[in-house]
């Protein structure tokens, strides 16, 4: 058997694949953050709470209303997106002219309130959400047993990431969006409703978080704390990728998942901190992040 | 007749005055404070439920002890030792705290024990697992009430090894408690004729365990010992089922509580062994108290919450008996008096403050066997207290004379 730094190659391949699964969550969440930061200039700290809400909606849908996983995969992002519209219109729109820190504090407050509500109703041990029937079981890849559901997570999230990237970079709607962030007044002069565009962008960004939440529900326990466990890492991903860079957040998300996976093999104790070590190094070398543009 | 009844009244009032004059309660109020995890991973096993249990004990005393009022304080340590220590110090210095109760998390409890000893206040550790509490870090003011990692190891570790699980691999939470649990269990496994093939340490609150589990599977061991707790144990068990680890290895949850089983469901946990100091459905008295608790919290109590009640009651009875809240007098009384309530029958060892009582090896029922909500366990064996806990001869507590 071939060894790689004392680790058998098949085991290593398995770990890389698992890293990719986690990376696809990072990618999807940081993508939403990057889109929101790029268009609204808001550091959306509520992202983790909205991700948690997506997972909870999936669980509630099944528990109280009998709505299955596939329907919730569509419904939960819609509901959370609608909530996003409310948040943007009622709260965020007043902050655009102020410093970033105001947006951060406000969304952090939203997180605390949301998590507190879910915690007081459902406790912290979490709720069980079963893997949908069609995706139960596992496939033997030779070097590891891969649960079908995890494979689906990678496929689904990479597909969504590419679709969002294409929407923003390759379509005329995306072009308008990008123009709107560069010069809102000019775009408005062309008769385009920029404020509405911004509202919908926020809704779209948080809908991505909810989508990731539904994907995560069968893997993790659905619990009030699941968002805050993840959000710091996801922010690190956004910073490493370059604030607001869409391609950057997707690639960095996947890449960091893999780096974290490798750390779990070679020095497991550091697996929670490796992302921040990478962040420190990247910021030293490229202060604007890997894919960011210096302003 | 008249004069004798007059005498009796006079005598009674004299006694009453004398009694009040003798009662030495500092600040004219008995203050009990609990510092525990109110919001994070361990909030369900103790948290608000633990505070409620203490309030129930105070209510059962009608809010009074030795003729004085009883008050309760509670705070969230957020699993940070420095937060726990500074809160404990603040309460003792500015609030006149008389009894400090430590909820979950070994790190915070070790910090609180130091403060309590320095300030000479009784400290009862309920939720901490580490056996250091009554060994290297023992103090004359610490009582370790409910369980510890040695007792858990002597329960699950010994039972599983004797039942044929000879080779072990550990999945260990990377802090004081995990290390303690792994060491104590390894010792029992080796003593029972088993071997330890290795261990992987994971950070506290790691959300994804699949990677660690694959490493465990690669070891070829029969038993995967989960030396972690709360959300970490829950997510590890979930991932182990998903990746089919449970087909090649048997899981042994070294510290699990009823809330963890409730959260995972019987389908995922059926047949698992665990060791605990108490189960709500084990005796009629336990059931009766648990139903009262359920009325308030809408869930059944964990062993820690029952121990919170029992420890508070034991302390209050000692205050009542000595008519004093002087730490040394009350602690001496608590150690002299056997504990005898719905939670447990046992004693508190004078030398190191170890609460010694029976522990129970429990097995999780299958869906079919479970007849009502929260009916989760079969009691497999009772482990007598002197077999479960560290023997005095093996104690590393400096105060224990050998």
TrEMBL record, chain A:
GO terms assigned for molecular function: transmembrane transporter activity
Domain of life, source organism: Bacteria
Coiled coil: none
Gene Ontology BP terms: amino acid transport
Alphabetical UniProt keywords: Amino-acid transport, Cell membrane, Membrane, Transmembrane, Transmembrane helix, Transport
Pfam families: BPD_transp_2
Family: Belongs to the binding-protein-dependent transport system permease family. LivHM subfamily.
PANTHER family according to UniProt: ABC TRANSPORTER ATP-BINDING PROTEIN, BRANCHED-CHAIN AMINO ACID TRANSPORT SYSTEM PERMEASE PROTEIN LIVH
Annotated protein name in UniProt: Branched-chain amino acid ABC transporter permease
Taxonomic source organism: Paucibacter sediminis
TrEMBL record, chain B:
Signal peptide: 1-23
Leucine-binding protein domain boundaries: 30-365
Gene3D superfamilies to which the protein is assigned, alphabetical: 3.40.50.2300
Keyword Signal: yes
InterPro entries for the chain: BCAA_transport, Leu-bd, Peripla_BP_I
Keywords: Signal
Family named by the database record: Belongs to the leucine-binding protein family.
Protein name: ABC transporter substrate-binding protein
Organism: Paucibacter sediminis
Native organism taxonomy: Bacteria, Pseudomonadati, Pseudomonadota, Betaproteobacteria, Burkholderiales
